[in-house]
Design goal:
single chain, 10% strand
């Protein structure tokens, strides 16, 4: 069943700063691990690693693991490439090393999960995205080798899949007229069928199919 409570550390790399990562009243964090420590365990947890709360330093795996509470823990890490691009080469290396430690910690802990948004589509941060991808893939490969020991698996999960158009429709429109969907689908299906009959090479092979017509209904008005 659902856990009664979950300790959550959630990071938006767009909002992170250097040298001040984030501010919490009179307390300032200076690194990804410092901010996660504060979010997971408050001031006490942050103080336990405050000496290494800087991009040019980093906690040991034992240090960070010790501050995690018992029970479910969830780390949500978004837009890391944006934050990573603001760091020095040493800071970027420390960030990648910490991510590997965090993955190792969670791979060995029941009810601990790390969710990292996929940075691959951000061309402006291609180099950082590649480095993060390489670091995570190293841990995923290691976890798969140890899967029988830990009885768990790290995975690459796409929550949207091929439903991107439908997700966007739901976000942008209060309602979409079903009759308009059907008419558009019918018109395009008739057009594609005629064009394919006259010139089979003019269109992709699947456009004159009922499956494609159904896809137009699903994705309308896109």
């Amino acid at each position: 069943g659902r856990p009664r409570s979950v300790a959550v550390g959630a990071i938006d790399g767009h909002k992170a700063g250097v040298p001040v990562f984030a501010e919490h009243g009179d307390l300032r964090t200076h690194s990804l691990w410092g901010e996660l420590a504060w979010q997971i365990g408050g001031r006490e947890a942050w103080q336990s690693i405050s000496e290494v709360d800087a991009p040019e330093s980093q906690p040991s795996q034992t240090q960070f693991e010790a501050l995690l509470p018992a029970g479910p823990v969830l780390f949500l890490l978004d837009e890391l490439v944006v934050y990573m691009a603001t760091l020095s080469d040493r800071g970027q290396g420390n960030l990648l090393a910490f991510l590997q430690k965090l993955m190792s910690i969670c791979a060995a802990r029941p009810q601990a999960v790390v969710v990292v948004s996929d940075p691959a589509g951000q061309a402006a941060y291609a180099r950082q995205a590649q480095r993060i991808g390489d670091a995570l893939n190293t841990e995923i490969a290691a976890a798969q080798q140890l899967d029988e020991v830990f009885a768990r698996r790290m995975s690459d999960f796409d929550p949207i899949g091929d439903e991107a158009a439908r997700v966007i429709v739901r976000r942008l429109f209060e309602r979409v007229d079903d009759g308009a969907r059907q008419r558009a689908s019918s018109d395009y299906y008739s057009l594609y069928t005629r064009v394919s009959a006259d010139n089979p090479q003019a269109l992709p092979h699947d456009t004159a199919t009922t499956a494609y017509a159904e896809r137009i209904v699903e994705c309308y008005p896109f």
